[in-house]
Fold EamA family transporter.
Amino acid sequence: MIAFALATSLLWGLADFGGGLLTRRIPALTVVVVSQTIAAAVLGAIVVATGAWSEAGERLWFAVAAGLIGPAAMLCFYRALALGPMGVVSPLAALAVVVPVGVGLALGERPDLPQYAGIAVATAGVVLAGGPQLKGAPVQRRALVLTLASAVGFGAVMALIAEASTTLTGLYLALFVQRLCNVAVGGAALYVSVRRGGAALPPEGGRKAVVSSLPALAFVGLADVAANGTYALAARIGPVTIAAVLASLYPVITALAARAVLRERLLAVQAAGAGLAMAGGLLLASG
């Protein structure tokens, strides 16, 4: 379980880093739609090859719900980032972990005392790793509402995808259905944006810029899919309360990737957050 949950953090962290880089030159909605379309195509081939259609059942509605909520949460997050300040929005969005942890507790999971301490320490570390803005410009109420909505949405997706299947082939089908819904919602949002004067293609390079970025877009989409899959496996092995916290360490990975690739200097609070997150992870793993 621990290995799957930590793999989820690594994959989500790298996917977020790659997506962040791409949105610097390609509209965010286009990044979401194209990356998820590629992921849906790959998953569709896997579903056909494995005969996963035979696993269709009532649990697929969890995947549908996750697929509808996920893009909406992402749009709220992007909108909140636009309103800023980013130093408040990003750490607050990391509180998404509260939702699956709450679900696990509601279902009767009871971590021992060191694990409770690990949950608290790791969650604090994740928030601090986002580099919270402790002073400066005030946060708009709308930005705060959008940020909290995105956190609830991201957390709900984690809880829903964990319930979407009971077998490996069923997981392939659930992830495929989730991606189809992601593409449908994201595509509709992109259409509305274009109708309102927004851009679907980057101002520099246009279609060629998107085509040249297809390998990176494929990586973002497939890493996100793989992360959802490893999290579902971790949550199935359980307990969910621990799997969710370990899987939510991805902001640390994103910050470290920015440090390694872009040479961005970590703030002191981010370095402290990374240390706390790792300490919390060790407490959870030792429980």
